[in-house]
Amino acid sequence: MSGLRPLVSIVDDDESVRESLPDLLREFGFRAEAFSSAEEFLVSSAINQTDCLVL
Known about the structure:
alpha/beta
């Protein structure tokens, strides 16, 4: 086990969601990355590391 905190990837076209939700998740101990589109997420390196995807 790597010991890394779970990664939550967020895909949302609303900028306020992309800015606020990762901050909230980090407060609860998660790693978080936000993407503005599915295409952006699919070409990112996060696709292979994501434990939970929020659409």
